[in-house]
Design a protein that fits this description.
Helix content: under 10%
Structural class: mainly beta
Shape: globular
Distance between the termini: 40 Å
Radius of gyration: 20 Å
Strand content: over 45%
Number of helices: 1
Oligomer: single chain
Length: 209
């Protein structure tokens, strides 16, 4: 629904096996072309035993400014593959729980907007992904002082790319096999090597056994 309460999109489909948890969960995705603005989204799920689950939330679609900007950082699972060679559509397997199992890399998806064209019309940009711990020591300040808790060192991965067009859709994997279980944050920083503009975003995830 839009801000006036008018229905602007509706869909229905059967749920398929989740790439994140094939034996325990089912997944479904919906797409809609929406103008910039604020919307209310409602979902309802029914199973064969007449049970029902519902969700409501709000989303905001900002108007394009032409400046360098970054989408939400989405933690994904499964294989990240393009639907067709040379096509802008991609297959994104969202990870709703944002949990990464031991032995699996952290894979995130994001989009970069407003890239400036350089010589020959190609844009050049650099992005840096940094994974850091968000664990908090619940002990008293005195206990923390005399016996500091070990915190994993941040993991950083960097890459430089060239691209034709103002929008870049990007999957990026960071090896985190050395990290213990716990709560973490991944930050993505993007720098346009043509204009010098910078932007960043972050997301949280959980490392599980």
């Amino acid at each position: 629904l839009d801000q006036a309460g008018n229905e602007v999109a509706r869909g229905e489909r059967a749920m398929s096996v989740s790439a994140c948890e094939p034996s325990e969960a089912r997944a479904a995705a919906f797409t809609a072309d929406l103008a910039p603005g604020e919307y209310r989204v409602g979902l309802a799920v029914h199973d064969g035993d007449r049970r029902r689950g519902v969700y409501q939330g709000r989303i905001e679609i900002p108007a394009g400014s032409g400046r360098l900007a970054l989408s939400d950082i989405l933690v994904t699972c499964g294989s990240a593959s393009a639907l067709a060679m040379g096509q802008p559509a991609v297959n994104v397997e969202a990870n709703p729980r944002a949990s990464v199992r031991a032995g699996d890399p952290l894979t995130v998806y994001f989009e970069v907007y407003g890239l400036a064209p350089g010589a020959g019309g190609a844009s050049r940009f650099e992005y840096v992904c940094t994974v850091s711990s968000r664990e908090r020591d619940p002990r008293s300040w005195f206990q923390r002082m005399i016996a500091p808790q070990a915190v994993p060192e941040p993991i950083e991965a960097r890459r430089e790319e060239t691209h034709r067009g103002a929008v870049r859709r990007q999957f990026f994997s960071v090896p985190i096999e050395t990290l213990p279980r716990g709560h973490y944050q991944v930050e993505v920083r993007v720098r346009d090597l043509v204009s010098g503009a910078e932007t960043k975003g972050q997301a949280e995830f959980v490392r599980v056994d």
